[in-house]
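Allow me, if you will, to draw on your knowledge of protein folds for a short while. The matter concerns a single protein, recorded as an amino acid sequence and a row of backbone structure tokens. Could you please explain, in whatever detail you think fit, how the structure tokens follow from the sequence? I remain grateful for any guidance, and I place the record below:

…
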Amino acid sequence: QEAPKQEAPKQEEPKQEEAKKEEPVEAPAVSVIRCSAGEILQPVPGKVIAREEIPDETFAGGILGDGVGIVPEKGVVVAPFDGVVTSIFDTKHAVTLEKDGMEVLIHVGVNTVNMQGDGFAGFVEDGQEVKAGQKLIEFDSQKIKDAGYSDVVAVLLTNSDDLEGVECGAK
């Protein structure tokens, strides 16, 4: 009777704890937006493009704030700073975060809300504290393209009008 007690439960638990410890990954090295309140690191690996090049009028026109676009090389979004998730959309295609008065929207793709979450997975909850480099969202770029949408990720400082010295671009 004692042998079965020692097997499965005790072996499973440490593996889960190890996985939790590995979650916060290395913080991104490239800064994409800088302002008086701080900096926003590149949350998605890929080519940083000017906000005006994002294939969406609302994003490109700066209506939702100043920022950049990223042509993704990998389908993962990580936290661009140590901060708080203010909202993760039900469809997991977008997330907003806050730190030191900076309000940031990271929106994966253009019109991807229409995909109703297909091809997207969220790893955080509203109100959760996150560390720079921590995984927020995974997405399937091919699925986005196959659905007829652009997979360009918009990274926008939504309250850029309220902050001083806003500068965008990879650095």
Q: What stands out?
A: The two ends are 62 Å apart (CA to CA). Residues 8-22 form the longest helix (15 residues).
